[in-house]
Amino acid sequence: MERITSYLKMMRVWDWIRFYTFFPIVGAFLACGISPNLILVCAVFFCVIAYGFVINNYFDAEIDKKHKKKVQLDTNPLACDRVTNRGTLRLSTVLVAVAALLSAMMDTSGFLFTLLSILVLTLYSAKPVRLKDRFLVDIISHGMMFGGVPFLAGFTLAGGNAVLSLQYPVAIASLCTIICCEALIVHQIHDYGEDLGNSPTTVVRIGRQVGWMLLALSVLFSLIGLELAIRYFGIGGYLGLGIFGLVVMYPVYSCRRDVVVQAKSVYNNVLVSYLQIVV
């Protein structure tokens, strides 16, 4: 039973279930509204996203052994030798097979977009390509594999025609991509201390301060994209409000501790400068 629990932890469901599933579901909803296809899209991308986290754990096992926070939180059981490499690859194969089978039964275009999601997720972590170690490419590929491509997959799997209505789905997919780029920047800022010297992320290379500037820029682009979507494609109401919440509240909530630390640092610097002038 303990071994089964460890394999379930490899999927790190609670790390993504409340965020990354949003994008394929939105795509499916815009294509067909409330219908049984939403459930099938959820099932497909539960497996796809879970695969992405499992395969990331597989290739990051040696790095994660040096990551004190991840060891304490037990986010990678493979790094703690509680699951095996063979078992991890079997789990990955099952997740890919289920996602591919379900998507192939739904729509050909959706099936191809699903395979594209799986491919980018694999290349993101797998050597020798390993997109997550490449400057800026890590952020762009993260946005594509969790945002834009899953949105297009959900849209087409649910019956939407991405060719006849090309501008509409591509515009929304671009917005989803930017939001998921923003999500990785938040994550890299949050893990900067642990990643420094262990993982060559974009924020590690440019520094935390410039990372904050990059995050602000991505939020700005997200808001501009949302405004354009509302104006030209009628995206509003609860969906527009939900997207706005993801764009603004997600980085604020995720980086709340870092913001407090930065505020204290600025306050202390100002106070020291003032005392030096006075004294």
Written account of the structure:
This protein is mainly alpha-helical. The protein has one domain (2-278): Farnesyl Diphosphate Synthase. It has 14 helices and no strands. It is globular. The model has no long low-confidence stretch (mean pLDDT 83).
- Average pLDDT over all residues: 83
Number of domains: 1
| Rg (C-alpha, Å) | 20 Å
| Class per helix and strand makeup | mainly alpha
Largest sheet: none
Element string (H = helix, E = strand) = HHHHHHHHHHHHHH
CATH class: Mainly Alpha
C-alpha geometry: globular
State the CATH topology.
Farnesyl Diphosphate Synthase
What's the structural blueprint in terms of helices and strands?
Layout: H1 2-10, H2 13-16, H3 22-32, H4 37-64, H5 68-73, H6 85-106, H7 108-125, H8 137-157, H9 167-190, H10 192-195, H11 202-206, H12 208-233, H13 237-254, H14 256-278
Helix pairs in contact: 3-4, 3-8, 4-6, 4-7, 4-8, 6-7, 7-8, 8-9, 9-12, 9-13, 12-13
What would a concise description of this structure say?
The protein has 279 residues and is mainly alpha-helical. It is built from 14 helices and no strands. It has one domain: Orthogonal Bundle (Farnesyl Diphosphate Synthase), CATH 1.10.600.
How would you describe this structure in keywords?
Farnesyl Diphosphate Synthase; mainly alpha; 279 residues
